Amino acid sequence: MSRTITVDTTQPYDVTIGTGLIEPAVASIPEAAVRVLVVHAAPLAAMAEILRARIEASGRTAILAEVPDAESGKSAEVASFLWQVLGKSDFTRTDVIIGLGGGAVTDLAGFVASTWLRGVGVIQMPTTVLAMVDAAIGGKTGINTAEGKNLVGTFHEPLAVWCDLDTLANLPVHDRVAGLAEVVKGGFIADTVILDLVEQHAAALSAPELDPATLDVLEELIARKVQVKATVVAADLKESFQREILNYGHTFGHAIEYTERYQWRHGSAVAVGMVFAAELAHLAGRLDEASVERHRSILESLGLPTTYPGDRWDALSTAMRRDKKTRGDLLRFVVLQGIGNPVRLEGPDPALLLGAYDAVSSAPVSGGTISLG
Ligand SMILES: NC(=O)c1ccc[n+]([C@@H]2O[C@H](COP(=O)([O-])OP(=O)(O)OC[C@H]3O[C@@H](n4cnc5c(N)ncnc54)[C@H](O)[C@@H]3O)[C@@H](O)[C@H]2O)c1
Ligand SMILES: O=C(O)C(=O)C[C@@H](O)[C@H](O)[C@H](O)COP(=O)(O)O
Ligand SMILES: [Zn+2]
């Protein structure tokens, strides 16, 4: 059994969540495609071979491109390597790219698809919780540069998204939990039932092995977060306004990833980023203490981090200035005016930012300045 959520943009597409989805995924490749490039990293090599066999059985040429794993794949060098593969394969506008993997691979595959011949089709086959609930949906693609996270990218919507839950069987628990951070984000910004479900099942959701009942809970959480994302991107694909709510926790979260040279998982960084945003909202008089504590308790119950060392302000503030929500010298944050009600906070007093940093610091804040100009 599978469930389908349609992302109702100008060219609507389906996100299918279920098991045994390789066959239908291959069947969804447009008739006109004669070549299919499967982009994957080493942990998905075996599944990529299965996909190759199915694609070739459908009468097409399959090309597999293995890229460096995780964040190391999201670079201009790797994109350039894929452009070379596409060029040497005579890849045309009717051919199709498949992104098979976690969010790093789906971001990269989407980016390359959007730039090759000014845009070819991409089908996303996410294999982490995070990619299923977030990265593979909505058309944001991106690579990192030496100066920061996702600084180069495009909006390029997929033809279809196939979330095959079978692939999660081998996903390490820390990656499952990191993905749950983006699920929890969906709870704080929109669907508060997500928060209730996580609170009820946190221990089982973050256990090394998932029991069948918890797998059902996970599927429900995935579907709820997919629905949150689908609704938001259908309303505002290019992030003119409403889509910014999906960036909850990301201003500080991306700054952590940059400061840590991408050695932190995205979901873990976003977890700390949400606590930072909650503390900022509290200091700005928008969120009560109990809601801030709810952030900490939910995230910690899953084993996610909620603190960060207090001596890294200079690097963090440099990275936050480069956030895509920044306008000129004005930093902008997504904060909550109560749980489920995200709003924009523009140009907060630097003292508030330092106060929020102090509140998430695992040791007292030291060094750095509070100047963000
Ligand atoms: N485009 C968007 O809207 C969007 C949204 C959220 C996150 N992102 C991006 O997604 C990335 C994070 O994604 P992620 O958390 O999936 O990390 P990831 O892609 O780095 O994957 C984490 C690890 O899990 C491995 N893996 C993937 N599937 C597996 C499986 N089924 N079994 C075993 N191992 C598997 C990967 O190879 C990698 O080592 C970040 O780059 C982030 O910026 C993008
Ligand atoms: O889809 C969106 O919009 C998001 O902001 C989702 C985020 O979870 C995701 O990490 C996204 O890639 C961040 O976007 P960015 O524009 O800040 O790079
Ligand atoms: Zn994210």
TrEMBL record:
Family assignment from sequence similarity: Belongs to the sugar phosphate cyclases superfamily. Dehydroquinate synthase family.
Transmembrane segment boundaries: none
Protein name (database record): 3-dehydroquinate synthase
Top-level EC class: lyase
Pathway participation: Metabolic intermediate biosynthesis; chorismate biosynthesis; chorismate from D-erythrose 4-phosphate and phosphoenolpyruvate: step 2/7
Cofactor dependence: Co(2+); Zn(2+); NAD(+)
Catalytic activity: 7-phospho-2-dehydro-3-deoxy-D-arabino-heptonate = 3-dehydroquinate + phosphate
Organism lineage: Bacteria, Bacillati, Actinomycetota, Actinomycetes, Micrococcales
Binding site for NAD(+): 69-74, 103-107, 127-128, 140, 149
Encoding gene per record: aroB_1
